[in-house]
Amino acid sequence: MSQRVIVLFTCLMVVTETRAECEHPSVGGNRILIEEPTNFTSGYEAKFKCATGYKPVNPTSSNVITCNGTQWTVLQLECKKKSCGSLGEIPNGRYMYSDGLLFGSTATAECNVGYKLVGDNTRNCFSDGWSGRNPVCEVVKCTNPPHIKNGELEDLIKEEYEYGEAVTYTCEHDFTPFGSLTISCSEDGTFQPSPPECLQVTCSEPDIQNGNRVRGAPPPYRYKHFVEYQCNSGYKMEGGGYLTCEETGWNPPPPKCLPIAITKPRPSPGTLETIPGGYGSPRPPTTGPPTTTPPSNGSGLKLAFGLGIPILLATVVLVFFIKKRASRNEHSLKVSTRNEDAEY
Fold first, then answer.
1. End-to-end CA distance of the chain, in Å?
2. What is the pLDDT of residue 275?
3. What is the dihedral of CA 84, 85, 88, 94, to 10 degrees?
4. pLDDT tier at 280 (50, 70, 90 boundaries)?
5. What is the pTM of this model?
6. pLDDT at residue 300, rounded to an integer
7. CATH architecture for residues 141-199
8. How confident is the model at residue 155 (pLDDT cuts 50, 70, 90)?
9. CATH class for the domain made up of 93-139
10. Using one digit for the tens of pLDDT, what is the confidence trace for 290-336?
């Protein structure tokens, strides 16, 4: 009987001891367990450390927790990302930090305008600091500037030109430059803008009939020379009279001098119209449009006098013949009356 009691008591102690264990601790926050035992019995002390790339927020905080029966005590250790610090400056360049200076971030190197990067342009923040080494920013260089027709460089030609260096062109005599005379070594290793063109620009003398030049020099006409024309009296200008010699010719194109249209007056309906060799006859009304005739090379005043004097003379002659005919008719009537009285 006593042996049974002893065996039963022993089993109860084993069951009690087996149940007095803690589960595997799970604390998170980039804190990891230093040792991994088979089980965590009551009274076991588990030690933690910060994960790679992290460090304790407070170095004096405890990193140990204890299994009390089936429960763990609270872990005081807190961890944060390590900082790699600034990479400093790059001559003629800089670093750009997309997500700060902490563990896991990336720094990108950039060069100033006119410089090119030699080496890796990215560096990563690891647990032991930044990876790689600083790249180098070298100045951009250009080869010889291009040659041009009918022109040359004012400066001595060099083997190479650094970014920002400029050269200047000049055109031969009687040739005009079109474009920029000065070009510079640009950031892509070429000279910009494109070199100028040297062209020989001439314009022929404008052929404007019934007009004459009032301003400007006589031919030959070269680039940007100007002339101004005016039409003769009795003509009007179609187009612009001030012309400038451009790359494509006269601007604007030479004008035309056209005759000024003058409306010929018409008599009112029922009036007498002069008929050569006669006295005149009534003129029927007309419905057609008025006719126009171009003027002579004289002025409008001369034209008015030229038309007015014949009309005035024709009117005087017409009145004279009408009165003379009326006088003859009256005389014939008186003679006829006297003859009749004599017969009676």
1. 213
2. 44
3. 70
4. very low
5. 0.54
6. 47
7. Ribbon (2.10)
8. confident
9. mainly beta
10. 444 444 444 444 444 555 676 777 776 676 767 766 666 554 444 34
Cβ-proximal residues to 130 (8 Å cutoff; 6+ apart), any chain? 84, 87, 107, 123, 124
Architecture per CATH, domain 19-81, reads as Ribbon (2.10)
- Does domain 202-260 match CATH 2.40.50.320? no
So what's the pLDDT on residue 268? 63
What percentage of the chain exceeds 90 in pLDDT? 63
Residue whose C-alpha is closest to residue 82's, from 101, 103, 97 = 103
Q: Max alpha carbon distance in the chain (Å)? A: 213
